[in-house]
Amino acid sequence: MADAVVLLSAGLDSYTAAAIAQAEGFRLFALTIRYGQRHALEIDASRAVAARLGVVRHVELDVDLTAFGGSSLTSETPVPKDRAIIPDEIPSTYVPARNTIFMSLALGWAEVIGAHDIVIGVNALDYSGYPDCRPEFVSAFERLASLATAEGVSGRGFRIHAPLQLMSKADIIRRGLQLGLNYGLTHSCYDPTPQGRPCERCDSCLLRAAGFRDAGVGDPAL
């Protein structure tokens, strides 16, 4: 059984991507990044998801991107609500280079534990216009991984698994339900209420709601 490092954010995408990798026979090492996001709910949810998956190890790493700001997720800039999502328009919730940073950290850990597979739940169809969710990014990082590491230059390269890249949100949910996932454990909202409830108005909430609606099932997190 091969080992894989999975970036686990506790959203339904990363949970589903991790479960797909597990179903394919990988032992999972989960990496969750505390990057200065607005709330701790995401971290709490990632712990519940990691426990449900039975990962070998779950590392929570602090990389405080609020020092840079530049995003409504890492600054006091309000999170946009009730907006029409335009795929080619990059919203204020984009965190500069976030997936590049996260993938680099996952790559470093993978090399340490001798894993050659990294799993990420990026999606290029139902997303908010982030450039680091596109297949071009995933392919480029896979090439980078083989150039930037001792394992890579020794001929033992890395594979980036992004099984959700070309799936709709509804198809992701259907696949997760086939795998028996409990989406009630997940958290997607960018700007939850003080009581910890989803705002149901940010991009992430709207995309999630559309996915469950199109899949014909209710969202157990509501």
Report on this structure.
The protein has 222 residues and is α/β, with parallel strands linked by helices. The protein has one domain (3-215): 3-Layer(aba) Sandwich (Rossmann fold), CATH 3.40.50.620. It has seven helices and five strands; from the N terminus they run βαβαβαβααβαα. A five-stranded parallel sheet has the order 3-2-1-4-5, with helices on both faces. Strand 2, helix 2 and strand 3 (57-62) form a beta-alpha-beta unit. Helix 1 packs across helix 6 and helix 6 crosses helix 7 (203-215). The longest helix is centred in the middle third of the chain and has 16 residues, at 98-113. The radius of gyration is 17 Å and the shape is globular.
Question: Topology, please?
Answer:
Layout (H helix, E strand, L loop, with lengths): L2 E5 L4 H12 L3 E8 L6 H13 L3 E6 L35 H16 L3 E3 L15 H13 L2 H4 L5 E3 L7 H10 L24 H13 L7
Parallel strand pairs: 1-2, 1-4, 2-3, 4-5
